[in-house]
């Protein structure tokens, strides 16, 4: 999981009786293969895979950008859309190149985030968050990560890269999924 995602998850789960640790902190050095055809399948695969390798509750997520004009691409390939040695900048430039002749009215997109909580190889809870927006013709803003500089969120009239972390987390796909997961965890972790 990239550090941007880990940071958002840690902040969102503040107030729960949990400590969020990364795989390396749990002593896990192997990588889960992503074989799913959907965000949900990938998140569940990762969550179940890693929960078999520790005694901890394991939260995994898979998320990305789906653009209508690109038939849902980059989709589950969002992080590696630009091919070998992908970077956020290369991924953004590929999207902008592919959409250079797409008119403003046809630039609809959405971010999707699926999260799965597992224990001992069994999925305990699955949640999904989505947020709709538009793809701009050029980057705007310097905050966030990934496709945030080209994803325009109409209700706030800003890109995700122009939103402060707290503003973004309140409306983003990951923020919406985490809100659902936090509500579940609050009940799940309550002493009997």
Question: What do these coordinates show?
Answer:
The protein has one domain: Maf protein (Alpha-Beta Complex). Strands 1-2-3-4-5 form a five-stranded antiparallel sheet. The chain has five helices and five strands, in the order ααβαββββαα. 30% of the residues lie in helices and 21% in strands. The chain is an alpha+beta fold and 192 residues long. Strand 2 (108-119) and strand 3 (122-135) form a beta hairpin. The protein is globular, with a radius of gyration of 17 Å. 33% of the residues are buried.
How does the SSE layout of this entry go?
Blueprint: H1 3-12, H2 39-51, E1 58-67, H3 88-98, E2 108-119, E3 122-135, E4 151-153, E5 158-159, H4 165-171, H5 173-188
Antiparallel strand pairs: 1-2, 2-3, 3-4, 4-5
Helix pairs in contact: 1-5, 4-5
CATH architecture heading? Alpha-Beta Complex
How many β-strands, per DSSP? Answer: 5
The global form is: globular
Query: How much is the radius of gyration in Å?
Result: 17 Å
Overall pLDDT metric? 92
Task: List the secondary-structure elements in sequence, H or E.
Answer: HHEHEEEEHH
Q: Estimate the helix proportion, in percent.
A: 25-40%
Structural class: alpha+beta
Number of helices: 5
**Unreliable segments of 5+ consecutive residues:** none
Q: Report the end-to-end length measured between terminal Cα atoms.
A: 32 Å
Strand fraction equals 15-25%
Biggest sheet architecture: 5 strands, antiparallel
In the CATH scheme, what's the topology name?
A: Maf protein
Whole-number total of structural domains: 1
Strand order of the largest sheet: 1-2-3-4-5
The top level CATH class name? Alpha Beta
């Amino acid at each position: 999981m990239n550090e941007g995602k880990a940071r958002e998850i840690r902040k969102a789960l503040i107030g729960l009786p949990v400590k969020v640790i990364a795989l390396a902190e749990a002593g896990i050095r192997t990588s889960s293969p992503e074989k799913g055809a959907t965000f949900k399948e990938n998140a569940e695969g990762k969550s179940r895979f890693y929960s078999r390798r520790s005694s901890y509750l394991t939260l995994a997520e898979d998320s990305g950008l789906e653009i209508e004009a690109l038939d849902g691409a980059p989709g589950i390939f969002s992080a590696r859309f630009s091919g070998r040695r992908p970077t956020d900048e290369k991924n953004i430039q590929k999207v902008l190149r592919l959409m250079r002749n797409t008119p403003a009215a046809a630039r609809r997109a959405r971010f999707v985030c699926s999260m799965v909580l597992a224990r001992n190889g069994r999925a305990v809870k699955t949640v999904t968050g989505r947020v709709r927006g538009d793809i701009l013709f050029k980057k705007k803003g310097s905050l966030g990560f990934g496709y945030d500089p080209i994803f325009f969120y109409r209700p706030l009239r800003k890109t995700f890269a122009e939103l402060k972390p707290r503003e973004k987390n309140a409306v983003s796909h990951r923020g919406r999924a985490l809100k659902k997961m936090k509500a579940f965890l609050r009940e799940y972790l309550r002493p009997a």
